[in-house]
Amino acid sequence: MEDNPAKRLKSTLSPVFEDVLKSDTFVDKSALMLAVFETDDKPMVLCTAPRRFGKTVNLSMMQRFLELEVDENGEEKTKVLKEKDNYKLFSSARFKLKVMENTKFVETHFGQYPIIEINFLCCDDVTSKSDAVNVCRSAISEAFRQHSYLYESKLSPLKDYEKKHCEQWCDEFTYTGIPDDKVIKGLGCLAAYLNKFHKRMVFLLVDEYDSIISKALYKVKNADPETELEELENAASFPIEVIGYALKKIPGIFKGAYITGILDVGGVAISTLLGNVLRRQFGTNNLCQDFYGFTEDEVCTLFNRFAVKKELREKAKAKYNGYLNGSKQCLYNPQTIVQFLGNLSLGEGALKNYWQQSGYIHNMYKLLEEGSVRRLLYELLQGVKEDFQFTLKPLDLSDLKSLHNILAKQSLTCREEIVVRFLVSLGYLTYSFDDHKLQIPIPELIDEFMKLLRAYFFERFGINRELAEDCSASFSKLTVLCGEGDLLAKFKEELANFQNSITCLLQRSTLIDPLNEATLQSIITLTCSKAGFLFGNEITIPIHRTKVDIVLFNDKSGIIMELKCGPNTVQDAFKQIFQNRYYNVFTNKKYFDERKKSPSLSFVMAMHVDSDNKGSVMCLRREDVIHVLDDLQLDARESSLEGRIEIAVNSMGEPFINTCCESAILVS
């Protein structure tokens, strides 16, 4: 008998509903259909969510529930509900599906509609309107092939020219010759033919409706800037025109439509063509909000099902929980959770960064060229952005053009608000509309942003990457050695190595002359944080209203750094740490709680860089501070180290600070 019941369980990343339903990572989202039809008897809904949040699986589920099951001749296989293959799939599920509990809804809608399922997923570049038309042409052809009986069946009521039209769309050679104006009408024609064949209303399911738009955003090119933006508009508009023509120009045929994608795009031929479509944006309060992403309760159910151990499940929840929907529920990326559960045999090795395996924003580093965006991201890397006034509205044509200018051409500015809407839609940021907080949702995305920032700053300041790696590696060794009481000699040796590495790094940099403290702070922060630390710059200590230059921290360890350039000395920098009470930074629980960390002081470090970019460092370890306090024999009833230091500073002042300075390690 197996010790771990999770070994008998299976997960799947398949986007096919039947595969997901049969897996042990299945989460019931079937009530989505009830929410969709609650909007209207003939619902037209556009629902957006970040990648890997279950859009395609939900679309597959809706298809299996709503579709009219026919044979190769287009005839309905059976009119008896319980004999339908799809009904057997839904009713025989191990996990009782919520939608099946609504008998009236099932009897009204199950297996009643010819389905047009079309996917505009674009794998190639879209550099022009012509490319966009080709993607749509191919997608429509694939949709026609799903209903080849329209022209093949002897029972088809279509006229000969209509059958010929269907055959042209289905043939892999002839469909490519269909002209652009006919492509726009293609989806509508298919709906009309299905309606005529079955004498039933049609339901439209559209996946990846914005894929062409996203590709055009990055790749549309033309030598003339005005022509390029016009080409972007034409390329981005075309898939909307295809969908809009079908829904608006072919009245009385559609029972409903459900459209999904990542970006909510408006004002690109969408204002009139999709004017009757209800928008359901991820992160806003709407009827569909609970059906994309896994909620806390759903994840707990899966963790129980897979017998995830308590310590591991808490680490997984801390690592992967961070998205918010309109009702303030915390959400998880479903694919991340499924992959984590699939790797449970690895123990803590299952806690990987799965986001990076599912894609990234092309040319995203170019966003950092916009100063306000760069400063905002830098601030978000340090914690939650409080009181951020923001409206999550659709991206219109002018927004797309602004994003294109910075992502593709890097020639013009782009408003911070547009970039935030873009990043929230893509899942790189999340926003709480109730308390106006903007934040990076999960730690693995913090890692992604840090990589981008390092690449940007290192290029801007001419930083040698190999030398930066040497500094990071040396700093990492210091953080390990600082806790080894018997290895003081090795700590001193490594501190000297770190100082030499910093000097070499700065002197070999080409674009930081003259060096100032702000630039030095960026370089040191991004270099040292690579050793496995989160960071904070200019972090406020509420009690004393002072700000620490750099704080580096992880689950347990915290490091304080003060930097100086010019006429000051490294001793001046070191004393300032105690004079300004920087050691109290770790009592700012609100800041660290938001990062789900509770570090304690490991060591304090001061750094000075002279006019020749030569660095000097001075360091005092935690245990050295304790020795100083013990030797002074001060009455220190406070249990925390910070409390003991505070008593010493208040009672002795400068003599205590000088003693700490004398006890610190100063590399000669």
Automatic annotation (TrEMBL):
InterPro entries, per database record: AAA-ATPase-like_dom (IPR018631)
Pfam families: AAA-ATPase_like
Residue ranges annotated for the AAA-ATPase-like domain, each copy included: 24-223
Superkingdom field: Eukaryota
Protein name: AAA-ATPase-like domain-containing protein
Organism encoding this protein: Tribolium castaneum (Red flour beetle)
Protein's gene: AUGUSTUS-3.0.2_06905
